[in-house]
Amino acid sequence: MVFAGTVVSGERRTLVQSCSETNVAGLVSQCQKYVSKSGPKLKPSKECCAVVNAVNVPCACKLISKEIEGLINMEKVVFVARSCGKEIARGTKCGSFTVRKP
Question: Pfam families this protein is in (predicted)?
Answer without folding.
Answer: LTP_2
